[in-house]
């Protein structure tokens, strides 16, 4: 049976799509964004064991060369994540779809759906597809939160299984995107077009990063295209926040409210009807 | 007489508050009720408590007039013709409110104010002006947080205007409930949630549950009390389980001996209070509300209150660790249910000839506590500071809410970021109602109006009071007491984590 690498499950989330949703964060990402605020989700654990030494509650131990985590003993101090040199976490669960559904069972009456996020969840596309199919069978909606690097097009089973996608458009410029994430944005933009065309694009998001990105150009270009595709699709402008980031990789600061308002105005002027600043 | 002089000299009381306190002191200076020795012992131990209702009941505790009758007929006693437009309607209602007593001397029920006003709406802008002034007038003259208005379950223009005005006025009075049924449109519920996230009201009542038990003509009055329209509640006395449990040898002794005995004594005390009200006070023979058909004695019941279930359960089980305590362990929760089932069984054995609405029975009520309670948790609530995650908490609520037709409710405080996603609260609320939660309230951490235990008080009013300044709302002092003794501002903040 296929297993997913799950970083964590947040039973009630108010910020991962419409209504109350269980957010399932998968481990592993193919981007290495310089502003990543949860870098511990990027790589798979290499079982080096550094984290075991720093854990104050002795909830980690080595077993046959593999780092094991005792959830019951964990105090959630995240010392292990701070010590990790591989941008990973020892607190990953290998879960079957059934395991995830079981974890959701307790909150089922209060949620409207699930949102699978990451890392980059589309790296585990088969698991994602199966989980969405099963979630829908119990009346939940299935949303995907993606960096857009893996094609949604050409996979009918996946597309049937999911309801909506929340897509990062981190930069509209190919080179800038590469500088920011390590990869170009060709597939991202194709996904944006495709998902909007089939009415499965819930929102696109751009993080505004002063001094690092050409924010004005990105918002201008992305909002223009989005408005052409469907002006009612939500465009979320997210303030860069220097929390949890690798400070050796980025020198920036939180954008001012003024700056965000100006960017929002650009998107509205370009025809986007639902622009949100957070 | 020292007490009287103290009231007279108290500069933190407004003139009106002094008059009411003096009236209470006068009432308490006579003791016409016959109370047997054993009942008196329970009273002195705080096991049986009449919530300071007074020693000579001269009006029912809660009066729930049929405002439809009033608007249709006007009032001969008040010299009012039936209103013909929105201005006359709100004016007539405001006049009538001044003549609807209750235990606090202020009305505890103002009507299903959306449906009773909706028919008068011709011009929406004008109606909004009238409704906003109406609500402002209520806040400034019915200076008591136990005054409660209802809206829903249907969507009306008036209901929307009431919500809009409530958001703008941001007052603690009146308390407000949306009767929520499965047919209530989501859009109205979302409008209500958006309002609650700003001003801590409305709360949400499970219409199907209340209507199933009390009939369609029910009202939510005072804190969250389900009562028949055109009637009300004679008296509310409470049984403090937290104080009764330490008198028991063990769990079996509590359930089989002490609880039945305390129920019997308390029911007898309630009988005595009702008897005096009905046979001596002359209220029902003299009130124009009765004569004009706004209330009738056969639409009255009485509320058998209880508090401190968590404290009783934890004591009986000797539960010290959180995982063993009420709200966390299955054993503790099961014992809680067993106690409440036994309570219901014992209360149902009693017959009172005057409680005609409920076929002679008293109806259970989960009392929210009083300002002076210390280490006693309201009704069947999990104590503040021990709240589990919200999904487990709501399931726990559902275990108990079905036993309390005259009211039980739980309160949840959200991080203010949920304002961006009211649908989130809607999902939680609907899930809760589907599981059998009867009544639920929300507010956000940044709200000036806060829900104390069932009623609303402004933080800013409590701050004034603490500085020794007068405040208009007489319930602010109760709120301040509850903040100090029951830590109501420390309710667990619910946020994504």
UniProtKB/TrEMBL annotation, chain A:
Catalytic activity: glycyl-[protein] + reduced [flavodoxin] + S-adenosyl-L-methionine = glycin-2-yl radical-[protein] + semiquinone [flavodoxin] + 5'-deoxyadenosine + L-methionine + H(+)
GO molecular function: 4 iron, 4 sulfur cluster binding; metal ion binding; oxidoreductase activity
Domain 4Fe-4S ferredoxin-type: from-to ranges: 38-65, 67-95
Domain Radical SAM core: residue ranges: 15-273
Needed co-factor(s): [4Fe-4S] cluster
Entry-linked Gene3D superfamilies: 3.30.70.20, Aldolase class I (3.20.20.70)
Keywords for this protein: 4Fe-4S, Iron, Iron-sulfur, Metal-binding, Oxidoreductase, S-adenosyl-L-methionine
Family membership noted in the UniProt record: Belongs to the organic radical-activating enzymes family.
Protein name in UniProt: Glycine radical enzyme activase, YjjW family
Annotated organism of origin: Lutispora thermophila DSM 19022
TrEMBL record, chain B:
SUPFAM superfamilies: PFL-like glycyl radical enzymes
InterPro entries cross-referenced by the UniProt entry: Glycyl_radical_YjjI-like
One matching Pfam family: YjjI-like
Protein name: Glycine radical enzyme, YjjI family
């Amino acid at each position: 049976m296929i297993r997913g690498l799950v970083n964590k499950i947040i039973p009630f989330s108010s910020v991962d799509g419409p209504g109350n949703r269980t957010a399932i964060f998968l481990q592993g990402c193919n981007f290495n964004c310089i502003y990543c605020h949860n870098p511990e989700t990027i790589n798979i654990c290499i079982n080096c064991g550094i984290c075991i030494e720093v854990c104050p509650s002795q909830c980690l131990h080595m077993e046959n060369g593999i780092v094991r985590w005792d959830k019951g003993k964990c105090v959630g101090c995240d010392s292990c994540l701070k010590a990790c040199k591989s941008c990973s976490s020892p607190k990953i669960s290998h879960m079957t779809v059934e395991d995830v559904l079981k974890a959701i069972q307790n909150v089922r009456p209060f949620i409207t759906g699930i949102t699978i996020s990451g890392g980059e969840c589309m790296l585990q596309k088969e698991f994602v597809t199966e989980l969405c199919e099963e979630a829908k069978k119990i009346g939940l909606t299935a949303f995907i939160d993606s960096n857009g690097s893996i094609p949604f097009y050409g996979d009918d089973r996946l597309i049937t299984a999911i309801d909506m996608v929340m897509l990062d458009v981190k930069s509209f410029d190919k080179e800038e995107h590469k500088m920011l994430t390590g990869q170009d944005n060709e597939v991202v933009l194709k996904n944006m077009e495709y998902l909007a065309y089939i009415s499965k694009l819930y929102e696109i998001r751009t993080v505004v990063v002063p001094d690092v990105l050409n924010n004005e150009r990105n918002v201008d270009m992305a909002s223009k295209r989005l408005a052409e595709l469907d002006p009612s699709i939500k465009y979320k402008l997210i303030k860069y926040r220097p929390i949890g980031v690798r400070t050796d990789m980025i020198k920036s600061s939180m954008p001012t409210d003024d700056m965000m308002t100006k960017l929002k105005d650009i998107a509205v002027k370009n025809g986007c009807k639902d622009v949100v600043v957070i | 007489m020292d007490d009287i002089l103290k009231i007279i000299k108290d500069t933190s009381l407004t003139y009106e508050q002094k008059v009411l306190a003096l009236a209470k002191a006068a009432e308490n200076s006579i003791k016409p009720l016959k109370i047997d020795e054993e009942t008196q012992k329970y009273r002195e131990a705080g096991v049986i408590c009449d919530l300071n209702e007074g020693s000579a009941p001269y009006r029912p505790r809660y009066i729930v007039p049929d405002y439809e009758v009033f608007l249709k007929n006007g009032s001969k006693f008040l010299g009012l013709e039936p209103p013909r437009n929105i201005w006359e309607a709100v004016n007539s209602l405001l006049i009538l409110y001044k003549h609807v007593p209750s235990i606090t001397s202020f009305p505890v029920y103002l009507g299903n104010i959306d449906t009773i006003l909706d028919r008068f709406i011709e011009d929406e802008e004008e109606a909004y002006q009238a409704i906003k002034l109406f609500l402002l007038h209520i806040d400034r003259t019915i200076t008591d947080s136990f005054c409660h208005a209802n809206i829903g379950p249907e969507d009306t223009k008036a209901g929307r205007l009431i919500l809009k005005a409530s958001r703008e006025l941001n007052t603690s009075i009146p308390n407000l409930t949306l009767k929520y049924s499965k047919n209530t449109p989501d859009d109205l519920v979302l409008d209500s949630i958006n309002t609650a996230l700003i001003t801590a009201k409305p709360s949400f009542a499970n219409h199907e549950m209340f209507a199933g038990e009390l009939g369609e003509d029910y009202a939510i009055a005072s804190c969250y009390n389900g009562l028949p329209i055109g009637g009300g509640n004679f008296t509310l006395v409470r049984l403090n389980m937290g104080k009764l449990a330490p008198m028991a040898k063990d769990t079996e002794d509590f359930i089989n001996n002490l609880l039945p005995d305390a129920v019997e004594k308390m029911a007898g005390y309630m009988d005595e209070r009702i008897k005096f009200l009905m046979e001596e006070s002359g209220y029902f023979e003299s009130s124009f509300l009765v004569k004009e058909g706004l209330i009738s004695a056969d639409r009255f019941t009485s509320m058998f209150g209880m508090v401190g279930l968590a404290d009783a359960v934890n004591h009986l089980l000797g539960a010290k660790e959180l995982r063993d305590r009420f709200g966390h362990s299955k054993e503790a929760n099961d014992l809680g249910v067993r106690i409440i089932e036994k309570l219901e069984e014992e209360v149902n054995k009693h017959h009172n000839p005057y409680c005609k609405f409920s076929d002679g029975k008293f109806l259970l009520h989960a009392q929210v506590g009083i300002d002076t309670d210390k280490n006693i948790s309201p009704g069947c609530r999990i104590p503040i500071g021990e709240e589990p995650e919200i999904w487990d908490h709501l399931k726990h609520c559902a275990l108990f809410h079905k036993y309390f037709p005259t009211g039980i409710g739980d309160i949840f405080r959200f991080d203010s970021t949920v304002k961006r996603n009211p649908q989130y609260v809607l999902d939680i609320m609907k899930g809760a109602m589907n599981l059998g939660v009867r009544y639920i309230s929300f507010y956000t951490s940044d709200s000036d109006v806060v829900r104390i235990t069932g009623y609303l008080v402004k933080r800013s009013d409590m701050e004034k009071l603490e500085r020794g300044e007068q405040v208009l709302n007489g319930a602010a002092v109760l709120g301040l007491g509850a903040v100090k003794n029951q830590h109501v501002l420390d309710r667990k903040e619910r946020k994504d984590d």
